[in-house]
Amino acid sequence: MSQDATVPSSPRRPMRADARRNYERILTAAGAAIAQHGVEASLEEIARHAGVGSATLHRHFPSRQALLEAVFKDRVETLCAKARDLATESDPGAALVTWLHAVGAHAVTNKGLGAALMPGAGDPTLGDTCHTLIVNAGSELLARAHQAHAMRPQVTITQLLKLVGAIALATEHDSDGAAETDRLLTLVIDGVRQH
Q1: What DSSP state is assigned to residue 45?
Q2: Continuous H helices in the chain
Q3: The dihedral of CA 85, 89, 92, 98: what is its sign?
Q4: CA dist., res. 140 & res. 21, Å (int)
Q5: d(CA 43, CA 40)
Q6: What is the mean pLDDT of each run of 10 residues along the chain (195 residues)?
Q7: Phi and psi (nearest 5°) for 65?
Q8: DSSP reduced 3-state for 169
């Protein structure tokens, strides 16, 4: 195997450009399928929507669990990148609110992903690692909002994330779950803002 060939489970080796494109297309297709059908989305449909064969999908993701973990990690990395981008905004309160809405949208589109990644299946550290990344990203935004007196001082990032998670769980089976999550989250955030 050449040095630039990839073994998906080995992140130390760089992927060839075509392999990287296939990997990204599979992740995108899997994310969309999970948002629509949940964690039992058809792997064959995911491969078809990604424009790759089933063998290519399985070469990158040898099991459904590996694919679910990759989708979840990719979504968490996207949320953390968004938090970093928002940390430079001039209105810290608005930046935090924007990020919390992104977390809500993330939670609604997971449709059973969190439960499928519970301890005992796949990477045992994934849930803790991702949770820590999200808490750290949100903590920075909340600290800025506290400094600007945009949020009540007693509000913690853990409380905010629990509220977002509870709202997303309550609306995940609604036909317009994302919109309802957004509306409910707006009501909750109004309650924790500093007035």
Answers
A1: H
A2: 17-37, 43-50, 54-60, 64-86, 92-109, 113-116, 126-147, 157-171, 177-192
A3: negative
A4: 33
A5: 8
A6: 40 76 94 85 93 94 89 90 96 95 85 56 68 92 96 92 86 80 88 72
A7: -60, -45
A8: helix
